[in-house]
Design a protein that fits this description.
6 strands; Rossmann fold; 10 helices; 2 domains; elongated; alpha/beta
Length: 242
């Protein structure tokens, strides 16, 4: 083995439930009231939530990422607000602020990453996310940004997992074949399926099982499955020795 690619949410960092979408939309509404004079922040938040959910469904269907900045701009526009580019960047930061604040690493995250680095393995990240900057801020906040080169998000790349292009992008950046790399993630439908499509091995992180995994159980099989991050280095070490 020469490279390990990690997902972020529910893999290294704890899952957030559906309520986080309401929180981030409410945060944007409050920001718009304070910064742009929005008269009905609750209506703005409700419309943004509706736009976000619709965009997420389309992204899952066509595997093309819908950016948070686009849905925010659309919601603000419908409310009669026309922020400039600088204000839109501030709006996106306000939108993601609750999520960045509440996320926490799983136990053994740093120890496992350190162990893999000590094995002279390349580490990368592929995260489905509607905002690239939010993932950078999350990883910096928890002191794991330094491990990943490259750190790829669907917001920055354009395609979402399980589209094969986002996986081959990392493999090509490293210059290594798929057989020498493993994808680590919590989702059978995004992480394991995507890895399988390009010929990578996979480790399913089953700490907080992904709610969509049961619908993929009969047709997608991870190479290994763990319930603690501390198990990952030993699995990879065994594959490297074999």
């Amino acid at each position: 083995m020469r490279g390990v690619v990690f997902d972020l949410g529910s893999t290294l960092i704890r899952r957030t439930g559906p309520e986080i979408e309401q929180q981030v939309c409410t945060s944007l509404g409050a920001w718009a009231a304070s910064e742009l004079g929005c008269r009905d922040p609750d209506a703005l938040a409700a419309r943004l939530l509706e736009l976000r959910l619709g965009a997420a469904r389309r992204s899952d269907e066509d595997q093309v990422e819908s950016l948070a900045s686009d849905t925010i701009a659309a919601a603000l526009g419908e409310a009669g607000l026309r922020p400039d580019e600088a204000a839109l960047r501030r709006a996106e930061a306000a939108f993601f602020k609750p999520e960045v604040r509440i996320r926490r690493l799983y136990p053994w995250a740093h120890e496992s990453l350190d162990a893999l680095v000590a094995m002279d393995l390349r580490l990368g990240m592929i995260s489905n996310a509607t905002g690239h900057r939010s993932i950078v801020e999350l990883t910096q906040r928890h002191d794991i940004f330094r491990y990943f080169d490259p750190l790829v998000t669907s917001a920055g790349f354009g395609r979402r997992k399980p589209h094969p292009d986002i996986f081959t992008h990392v493999l090509e950046a490293w210059g290594i074949p798929a057989a020498d790399a493993v994808m680590v993630g919590d989702s059978l439908g995004y992480d394991v399926l995507g890895a399988e499509r390009v010929g990578m091995r996979s480790i399913l992180v089953d700490i907080e099982p992904h709610p969509d995994n049961p619908s993929f159980e009969q047709r997608v099989r991870p190479t290994a499955r763990v319930t603690s991050l501390r198990e990952i280095p030993e699995i990879v070490r065994g594959w490297s020795a074999g």
